[in-house]
Amino acid sequence: MLAVRPRPAHRIGALGVLSFLVASALLGFLAAPVRGDAPIVSENSNASRTVTWTMGTATGLTLNGVDLEGANATLPWVPANVSWDTPAKFLARGSIGPNLVANATDISLRADTTNHVLDGDFASAAPWTYESSARGNVTAGWDGGTGTAVFRHASSATEASWDTMDGNLSSWIGLSGTGWTSRIGQHEGSGMLGLNFSLPPGPPGWAGVQRSSPVNWSAYDRMVLWIEPTAPSLPLSFNVTAYVGSNLYQTAPRDLVAGWQEISVDLGAFGPVRDSLVSLTLRVNGDNISGGQVFFDDLRVGNAKRFDEVAAIRQAVVKANATTPVAGSAVLQLNWSVPTESGVASVQAVVNVSGPSGTAINRFSAPSAPGWHRFLADVSSTSSLAGLYNVSVEIRVVADNTSASAVEVRVDDVSILFPNRQNGTYLSGAVPLGATSEFLQVSWTFESPQPAVVQAKIRSGTDSTPGSTNWGSWRMWTAPGSYAPALAAGSFVQVQVDLSTTNASVSPSLRGLLLEGRHRSTTPGTISGTFTLPPEHVPAFLHWTRLRAMSQIPTGTSISYSIGNATYRRPVAPDQNFTDIRLKTLEWFATLATTDGLAAPSLSRIDLVYEYLGPPVRVDVTSAGPMYSGQSYALNATAWDAGDHLITWNVDQFDWTADGNGQVKNGVYTAGDPGDRTVTATYRGTTLTKTVIFHVQPSDWVYSLTHGWAGITLIGLGAIGYVAYRYGVRRLFQIDDVFLISKDGRLLMHNTRRMRADRDEDILSGMLTAIVAFLKDADPEENGELKRFDVGGKTTLVERGPHAYLAAIYSGRVPRWAGKDLKRFMATLETNFGQKFAQWSGDPDDLQSLKEFTDRFVSNFRYRPPRRVNGRAA
Amino acid sequence: MTTKRIKSKICLVGDKSVGKTSLVRRYVMNMFDEQYITTIGTRVSKKEVQVSLATQDLHLQVDMMIWDIMGEKGFRELLKDAYFYGANGILAVADLTRRRTLDDLDDWIDGVEPLIGKVPVLIVVNKADLTSSAQFTERDVAQFAKAYGSDFLLTSAKTGEHVESAFTRLASVVVEGQLHPA
């Protein structure tokens, strides 16, 4: 609840108080606004009070979407940020070219995943070259049936049986053990040589079987046999010893494993001459073996096949752009399988990429498991420079044996991938900011490792067509960080980021943008205040009269005002006068709006003015028309306050005096002697008076007559005549109804002798008006009017005045003078009420005194106007 | 709350056959036959409307005199001075199924204003029950009404939809103008 501030009780003189009030009134709006708070009520000189709100604080105000800044209410700033912290947000407002790729965290240059190896899937033989090994032991070729490159080796055995150990074993002697000859499970033929042995703990010893006769192996360089140690014979090793002459030679021991195993012995250990090897012994070596057992079978001799050969496929690859030597920049892949591998020492693949940056050789052994296997090698370090690179896949087969051997290797799906990155651009569309905005700061988040480059650009405009004349030029940044954007204000921005590199392995990455801007809220905001009349001011309160505002309204902004309460609201314009708001509690609303984000209206003060009925300060007295001595005239007396508010029009509240034998009683002035006469009215209980001068004219002859003998005689005759006429002629007719109708058709007054329930006088008046108007307009050239019409036994006379017209319905025979009477009556009405007719609001209460006039007309025998001038109606 | 009585005059305008007479017939009982309209160009009806002015603590009994005026344009020119004189409000009626009737309201309203000044105008689009035959939209009406700063309503004299609201709404703004002329 707001209240009037109590006035401080200063003990200063009346002059001081007066000076203070005058100064306050003069300063009014000119003074700087008081900072504050609840509304202040100030007294005005014209019976009104001003309730003032200032905008220093929110006290007493209700703000909705409005801020207080520097003692002004204005629209708040709202952020207009472009905040893109993920690639998805960039892409939501724009697009990236084909050379860029967006992942979860950044936008970067897209790597080229093209396989630079042509026909790596061997759908055709070209462009590969196929090179078999120099001696032809390993061949390379294209297998069109399977679409693979195929490498092969095949050779037969170079050995012959020397002792199958199937039957006669007498030529063998067991040493340090006992031999036998039969055992199921021999490796070859029907028998084998077995040796039971035990070796004591301590230094390693040996046991073996020895050939009893010399052996001539001069034609061979290999001896091959099968051996199977049985548990618990292990660990054991095997070698062969023999004497050449008196020298004992022995081959290098070979560790034995469980199960049958073929051991090839290089006879070179016995020297170059092996035509008489004495005491040839097949030995097992070990210690602390009790109950050991080993079997020998199928001893053969021959000359070993020995080769280490490479077959290859080759292709030249063109690398267009340099890449980084960092791992991952160049990757070579192939699939290979080794479906056949027997009788050879090893199979190995060698992948070779060589070119301007060097040579990468990757070797890998044949897989042990069957099927296809992927080989993958990073060749980044040796293929960073652009140029021509040779890619080869070599299969190396090593053989050193006497048995038959076969190898088949297949290669497929050879590829080399280089990143080969290129330049790319992100470009947004016009990004709307909601309103014209100013830009405070731009922050870029990106990475540009050498030699990569990022060029980040922003431009702003005021329409949605980037590049139009309403757009500024690009602003560009090449390093991440925060900057003053120096962009022109705009309602749209466009973002472009160019990513480039001269090293196809190095990509810049774009991570985020934060462009911070702001504009005034374009959502209208309201500020309002409420004032409740203090109880002591309520009785005299009349109405609210005006709202005044102190404001700044730049182009593109507006403030609209309304007043009301919780259930009623009405728009008002500042300084517009209104008189129909009589709410004791009144709320004002100011709605601030802008279409320009950089401009906002500001409101610093609101005044609401209301009027009240103040003490009387003025009295008025009026009367219409000329005055004649001896006649009576109604005077109007009114008392007014300082705001021209009518306090009373009741003549009984005035004390009257008149000179020149005039008299005033109850507001009716009876004119005295001719001449200028004064009448004074004093508003009772005050000293307020009004003196008016009336010019009183001499009375007319009728008046003289009525005051002399002749007049008395005439009056007597007249009375007799009147009575006769009253009871004679008068009976011949009577006025049933009088309708006084405004020009627009509304019934002003109806006087009747008898009411009729089946008739609505309002509708009757309207239709009568329509008919009269119709008849008048039906033939405008005649300039005539409906004056009279007869229906059944009734006659209706019509008389038009400037502001209204009369319709009188007569029954009986209507005398000739009835029309004149009606005309006089109409004239009287127009004289006394014409102005009221013209301004009639429709309120019947405004015309209450009419009833008396029409009663007089209806009841009188002949109508006489209330005042007369020289015997004629006024 | 103070109770007061006041007399108002409102005129219905609009092209022929838009439903003016039907609206009045829906709203009031008449003393006079509708033949009057074709005889002298108008018929006057009356309806008492209750209006409360909350801001003034005032309750009004409004004797609303309704002048249903013939929709022939020639007639309008002939008698407009007489029939429209002193009107406190205008109920401008168009037909939802005829676009032309909405466009013609411009002529009706503009033709009346020089005679009676700025008075409240309520735009009424009748035959709202015939939506399948509509030749214009509510949006069109809103734009039209906005040009005159007027309210508008879609009514159906056939179903009675919004008929009473139209007269009551007009009455409430008319009496404001009568009590507090600008």
Topology overview:
The complex is a heterodimer of chains A (874) and B (182).
Chain A: H1 14-27, E1 40-43, E2 48-54, E3 61-64, E4 67-69, E5 72-74, E6 77-79, E7 82-84, H2 87-93, E8 94-96, E9 100-102, E10 107-109, E11 129-131, E12 139-143, E13 148-155, E14 159-163, E15 172-175, E16 177-180, E17 193-199, E18 205-211, E19 222-230, E20 237-244, E21 247-250, E22 254-255, E23 261-266, E24 278-286, E25 289-302, E26 305-319, E27 331-342, E28 346-355, E29 358-365, E30 373-378, E31 387-401, E32 405-417, E33 424-428, E34 431-447, E35 453-461, E36 475-477, E37 481-483, E38 490-500, E39 509-520, E40 525-532, E41 541-552, E42 557-564, E43 569-572, E44 585-594, E45 602-612, E46 616-622, E47 627-628, E48 632-634, E49 636-641, E50 646-648, E51 654-658, E52 663-665, E53 668-670, E54 675-683, E55 689-697, H3 701-706, H4 709-727, E56 733-742, E57 747-752, H5 761-778, E58 788-791, E59 794-800, E60 804-812, H6 817-838, H7 850-859, E61 868-869, E62 872-873
Parallel strand pairs in A: 47-55
Antiparallel strand pairs in A: 1-2, 2-45, 3-40, 4-5, 5-45, 6-39, 7-39, 8-33, 9-10, 10-39, 11-26, 12-13, 13-32, 14-25, 15-18, 16-17, 17-25, 18-24, 19-23, 19-25, 20-21, 20-22, 20-24, 26-31, 27-30, 27-32, 28-29, 28-31, 33-38, 34-37, 34-38, 34-39, 35-36, 35-38, 40-44, 41-45, 42-43, 42-44, 46-49, 48-53, ...
Chain B: E1 2-13, H1 20-27, H2 35-40, E2 42-53, E3 58-69, H3 73-84, E4 89-95, H4 99-116, E5 121-126, H5 138-147, E6 151-154, H6 163-179
Parallel strand pairs in B: 1-3, 1-4, 4-5, 5-6
Antiparallel strand pairs in B: 2-3
Helix pairs in contact in B: 3-4
